[in-house]
Design goal:
Elements: E1 6-12, H1 22-28, H2 30-50, E2 56-60, H3 68-76, E3 79-83, H4 89-100, E4 106-110, H5 119-130, E5 137-142, E6 148-153, H6 171-181, E7 185-188, H7 198-207
Parallel strand pairs: 1-2, 1-4, 2-3, 5-7
Antiparallel strand pairs: 4-6, 5-6
Helix pairs in contact: 1-2
């Protein structure tokens, strides 16, 4: 493991029909949307674990007593499954980051919606965090829709998750503005895209038909 003192946190909604990929489900149906969510989740988990950069934690929106998909995922990959808590996405990310930073020097949080995240992308982020000259350094992986697919931090900072219009096209811009205001340096990675809508799904299967559900 190249960066054992860092931690990669994968954020994901628990794979439940009707509660995942809801915008996409309006066009392809809830069952297919659930299958795609599971495929994306599995792909990101596999990439995180096989990259062998850092320990990997999977933080889920909720966990049922029994879930065959999650049981199989945890048997196949060395992940530590945890449960998110907090009222907003920002609260949940802040809580997960703060918890992980009690045990690790840096934390990288990624979602489960970008098919472009690969080992090289994760290593860029880990290297930026490991080599950061100060704890007040932020790594961001911009998303095409104005959000971000990755955030890396070396110390807790609640202000980076407060007052953000989560789910809007202003998330990245607002986060960078807060970082600049409080004197944090921002290191950006290449822009990636998420699969949220039908147009994204069509783009995905045009690039690789194996993603079709």
């Amino acid at each position: 493991m190249k960066y054992p003192r860092g931690c990669i946190i994968q954020f994901a909604k628990r794979p439940t029909k009707g509660q995942v990929k809801t915008r996409l489900a309006t066009s392809i149906g809830e069952e297919r949307a659930l299958l795609l969510h599971k495929k994306l989740m599995t792909s990101v988990t596999q990439i995180c674990c096989e990259a062998e950069l850092c320990p990997v934690q999977l933080w889920l929106s909720e966990v049922a007593e029994k879930d065959d998909f999650l049981d199989d995922l945890s048997k196949k990959y060395p992940i530590d499954i945890r449960v998110q808590w907090g009222d907003t996405l920002g609260d949940r990310m802040r809580n997960a980051i703060n918890k992980a930073l009690q045990h690790y020097e840096f934390v990288i949080v990624i979602g489960s919606d970008s098919p472009e995240i690969d080992a090289g992308y994760l290593e860029q982020a880990a290297a930026k965090m490991a080599d950061a000259g100060a704890d007040s350094s932020l790594a961001l992986g911009p998303a095409e829709d104005g959000g971000y697919v990755l955030i890396g931090m070396r110390k807790p900072e609640a202000r980076l998750f407060s007052g953000i219009e989560w789910g809007s096209a202003r998330v990245l811009k607002q986060t960078k503005a807060i970082a600049n205001k409080i004197g944090w340096s921002v290191q950006e990675l290449p822009i990636l895209w998420d699969v949220d809508r039908e147009v994204d799904y069509r783009r995905l299967i045009l690039l690789d038909p194996d993603w079709a559900v």
